[in-house]
Every structure is written in structure tokens, then in C-alpha cells.
Fold this sequence. Notes:
By secondary structure, the chain is an alpha/beta fold. The chain folds into 2 domains: 142 residues, Mur-like, catalytic domain (UDP-N-acetylmuramoyl-L-alanine:D-glutamate ligase), CATH 3.40.1190.10; 129 residues, Mur ligase, C-terminal domain (Protein-Tyrosine Phosphatase, Chain A), CATH 3.90.190.20. It contains 11 helices and 12 strands. The strands form 2 sheets. Strands 1-2-3-4-5-6 form a 6-stranded mixed beta sheet, with helices on both faces. Helix 4 links the parallel strand 2 and strand 3. The radius of gyration is 20 Å and the shape is globular. The protein starts with 9 loop residues before the first helix and ends in a 9-residue tail after the last helix.
Amino acid sequence: IEMGANHSGEIGYLSSLASPKIVAITNAAPAHLEGFGSVEGVARAKGEILTVNPHPEFAILNADDDYFDYWQDVAGDAAIISFGFSAEADFRASHIVPTDDGSEFTLHMPGKEMGIHLALAGKHNVLNACAAAAIASSLDIGAAHIKRGLEAVAPVGGRLQPVQSASGATLFDDSYNANPVSVQAAAEFLAAQDGESWLVLGDMAELGGDAELLHAHTGWVIREAGVSHLLATGPLSRNTVESFGEGGRWFETIDALNDALQQEISGRDVVLVKGSRSMGMERVVQALVNENDTARSA
């Protein structure tokens, strides 16, 4: 069960209904700040799942997150199992190597380490795999079954999914949603690919009073990651383009962005499409997959 929320108190209420015995918190990031006010507000809201009565039996927590200690403190008598990239994590990944269809890495778990081939792109998905392994272990699932399960995972639409484009360019559909942390992860992944990198970005929604500042900072983050081109749409993303600088362009509509992108990319390029759900950035993916379909918005 996913406990989604955009205001404090919602996760606590949902948890009181579900009474989970095993709880996992992946991270605290700047998302839904209109309702939570700050990243600390996000962390406290997620921590509500740990304070429900009765307390969970297991708390699966990100050892690399700034709020790990806070979540550990409020988890009561729940058994803590940590995951992450740091050496202190109970379940951790090392020797991460990108592949054509995902990643290969070494999974370290108590008393065992094993090689994993994960058919999901991006380092952040390796972190998610560590969390999944920790959850499975709390259910007394053995290492061999954990390996088999992780290696059977397939990409989900809109979540860094490789898609065949009409132009021959390498295309990744990450259009399902976006926040500053997930955009940074996407930019770092994109810049590590072979070929000229194009990030197509829509506004990141629900960032509250700091929305313009966060969009501007994201432009700098994308530039520092090494992305070559940024094409963006949405009123807030104008700040992202200005901060990104040379190689960045802003478009008033998705139609105009699609027209420019289709004219400029070739089979040597790598394109990643991302934005908040409300931006409908899947229309860019649709246009690139079938260039005869202009994917015009109503």
C-alpha cells in the first residue's frame, strides 16, 4: 500500500486504517511543499507512518537520508533495517555499472553479497532495489528469491522507460512526475549516456512559495550534471532555462516545443522527457514516437 499525501496528518490517518506491520520510507525530498511547507515538513509527515498504534514491527529506512535519525527516533520499538549506498546500511549497493537496459551492481546484505542485473535505468532505481530487498528480507525471503525477484522487474511507463522514437534517437519517457530531486537524478542519468543529451522539462508543481527559486536552482543543477540541451515549457520553467544558460530554450506551448525538437534531434541523440503530472509531458513522448502524430493539445 502506498501512503500518498500532500498535507500533514493524511499519512497518519491512512496508517491508522491500514495498521502496517512493515513500513518503508524511501526519502524526504522537496515535493508537495504547498501543503508541507518545507522538506522538514515532508519528513515529519512521512514519519507519521511510524507513530501509528500499534507501532510497525519493521521500519525500512534510507540510511543516506538527512532525516534517517529522526525517523529512527520516532519508530518506537520497531526493528530498524537500513538501506542505501553508505557502508553503514544493512542493505547497500556497490560497483554500480550502467548497461544498455538498466544497471548491474553488487547487493550487500547481512551475511551475503551477490551480483544483480536490474532492468531499470538510473542510480536511484538501484537505491529502490536495495529498499525492496530489505523489505523482502523482513518477510524472511531468502537471498536467491530476492535476486530472482529483482532481476524479473520490468520498466513502468513514464518512469524512465526506454521508448523507440521515430527518428532513431534514444528516448527515455520519465514523464509521469517531477520534483527537484527526481529531475537531478534524471539529469545525471541522461548526461552519463553516450550521445548528445537533450532534457525536455515541464514545470514541477506544488513547490509552494519557493517554486521560482527551486526552478532556477534546478537549471543550474542540470547544467552541472553535464546535460547539453534543455528544452522547457510552463511558466515556472522559464526560470530553469534562464539559469541553465546556453543550450536552453523555453517554449510557450508543448506544440511549439514538439515542432522544434522533431526538427533538431537525430539518431545520435539521447532525449529524456520529464515534468509534473499536470503538465502532460507524455504528449512530447507521443510526438517523438510517431512524428506523423503531432500530439496537439486541445
